[in-house]
From TrEMBL:
Residues 280-354 form the Flagellar hook-length control protein-like C-terminal domain. This is Flagellar hook-length control protein-like C-terminal domain-containing protein. It comes from Alkalithermobacter paradoxus. The lineage of its organism: Bacteria, Bacillati, Bacillota, Clostridia, Peptostreptococcales. It comes from the Bacteria. InterPro entries: Flagellar_hook_control-like_C. It holds the Pfam family Flg_hook.
Amino acid sequence: MKITSNTHYCFIPNSNISTEDTKALVEKHNSNEQIDLSLNKLINDLNVPNTKENEEIIKQMIKENITVNKENFKTIKENLSSFKALSKFSNEEIKLLNESIDDIENKEVRQVLREIYINKNGKNIENILSDLKSINLEEKDLIFLFKNNLKLNYQNIKTLDDFLKKGENLEKTLDKLYQIVSNSKETSKCEIKAIIKNIIKDLSYSKEINLNEIKNNLELLAKKINIKERIYSDKEELSQINDRLNFLNTLSNESMYFQIPFQYNGYKNLAEITLSSKKSKTSKNKKEISIFISLNTHNLGKVESLLGYCDNRLNITFSSENEKIINMFKKNESKLINNINSIGIKDININYKVKLKDRFNILEETKIDYANFDIRV
């Protein structure tokens, strides 16, 4: 599979204990000590109570390289507290409210709560109350949205929760859209269906995936839906689909995270790809390139691979939920090494890991620089 892009992103390290890993653990310990020292100072500077929640917000902001100042802290803290307050409303309390709040799904959460308390409006919060109660919102969730320039509103919080915790993905979203337009008599449906087909690549015939092309098609699809939304009978569902597409488009722009639905030998699969480039800690003036690929496959289940390249050295970690799959990878290791050698990379280190429950989490992303990629996996 060939992946081409003008963009990139980040990843989470493996768990095999080695000399390098031991050094990393020491660095992490020292880093945590520095964070604790910074934490106490920042709490004093911000003049906020020294609570566990405040500490966690500041700690996550530091880890994500977000400037810790009064304005940023206030934005995250107030929206987090407001969301928790809204989720505790009862139907009896909502009945006492007056008018509905316009565009309540897209208003910042703290603005919604302010409207309820000051003007006693918000009758339509009843429409989203069950979702509010079902979402387990954490500090890192809001910080992720904030870092990626996504508004801290109900719609983005719900979409993030759907993708990360409730199993929603681009493949399912496109399937729903395809069904809606297929059942419609609208003459322009062929155009939308053609864009969907361009996004879902069939790797049985072509091994190349162009991330920029997919990204451009998603943006085009979102624009088409926005224009045609009013003429379809499933307006509400189309609106939700459009919100999800725009959400993923923003992530690809800000964090270089991609969901790629594809077909292989007639079976549907989904790839999550993150790309990053950062300065190496071990080699001066060198960049470390990381590519993380998570595949939901028909025959092998979930398979993840992490590739790290720096100073002509390639580190690869394969992860699977099934030890038999890991053993299959090990049996084919020499063939893989020979193929990589053929493109000029000689220094290769391969690790394997059985990964039972945890999965790659886009909440752990960091800001990155831009680089060009032409990587064969």
